[in-house]
Amino acid sequence: SQKIEQNSEALNIQEGKTATLTCNYTNYSPAYLQWYRQDPGRGPVFLLLIRENEKEKRKERLKVTFDTTLKQSLFHITASQPADSATYLCVMDTGRRALTFGSGTRLQVQP
Amino acid sequence: EPEVTQTPSHQVTQMGQEVILRCVPISNHLYFYWYRQILGQKVEFLVSFYNNEISEKSEIFDDQFSVERPDGSNFTLKIRSTKLEDSAMYFCASTEGTYSYNEQFFGPGTRLTVL
User: What CATH fold (topology level) applies to the domain A16-90?
Assistant: First the structure.
C-alpha cells in the first residue's frame, strides 16, 4: 500500500535559520502533495499544495519542492521564528477522496 | 472567518457505550470527512461523505461506525459499542469543492476517552 515517510521525528533549529523537512513516498505516484501544520491538541491546518508538474511552490517564508524522480518533497521555512514551532505533516492524496498523512516532523525553533 | 466546529471537545465513556460526535462543517462546503488520531500516532482517514451518502471509507470504518447528516448543518459520527482502542482524537473536516485536491478544513477535534 502507499506509504509516506517523514524521516525526522524532531528537528531543533535556531531562530533565523532555515528549517528543511523531508517527505518520501513509496508505492504510489501522487498527482500532488500537501503540507499541513498541527499544533498540540489541534486539528491540522493547510499550508501548501504542490502538483506533480510543479517543481517548486512558495508562500511567504514557506517553500515546497516536489521531485517525482526521487519520490520526495522538501518543505522549507526560511527565517524561522519560535512561532513556527509545531508538527508539520506531509499529506498525499491516493486518488480516493481521502488523505494519507505522514507521521509528521516536530519542529522546535529556539529563540 | 468560517470554521469547522466540533462538540464536545472531550467525551469520556464506558466501554460498550454508544457515543455521537458532532460537527458543523463550513456552510457552503460539499464534502465532509472524519479522521482519527490515536495519541502519538498519524492522522488516519475514516470516511468521506457527499450528497448524503458515504463516498469512501477506510478499513477502520467498520460496522460499529456510522455517519449521518441529520439536518442542513450537522454532520455526526456514531460509534455504536465503544472499545478501549477507540480512544483517540476525532477530527471532522470539510472541503468546498468536489475535487480530491481541495484544501481540507479541519475542526479542533473531539478527544474520546473510553474507560
Answer: Immunoglobulin-like (2.60.40)
Name the amino acid, one letter, at A66.
F
What pLDDT does B100 receive?
Answer: 62
Instruction: Tell me the CATH class for B5-114.
Output: mainly beta
Q: What is the pLDDT of residues A46-85, one digit of tens each?
A: 999 998 889 899 999 999 999 989 999 999 999 999 999 9
Cβ of B109 within 8 Å of Cβ of A101? The answer is: no
Tell me the average pLDDT across B10-27: 97
Alpha carbon distance B48, B63 (integer Å): 15
B 53-112 → A contacts, CB under 8 A: 55-56, 58, 89, 91, 93, 100-101, 103-109, 111
Q: Which of B36, B35, B74 is nearest to B52 (CA)?
A: B74
Beta-carbon separation of B107 and A43 below 8 A: yes
pLDDT at A98: 77
What does the domain layout of chain B look like in residue ranges? Answer: 5-114
Query: Which of A44, A98, A103 is closest, CB to CB, to B48?
Result: A98
Cell numbers at A56, concatenated: 517548486
The mean predicted confidence, pLDDT, of chain B is 93
For residues B87 and B40, the answer to whether their CB atoms sit within 8 Å is no
pLDDT digits (tens, 9 = 90+) for B49-62: 998 999 999 999 99
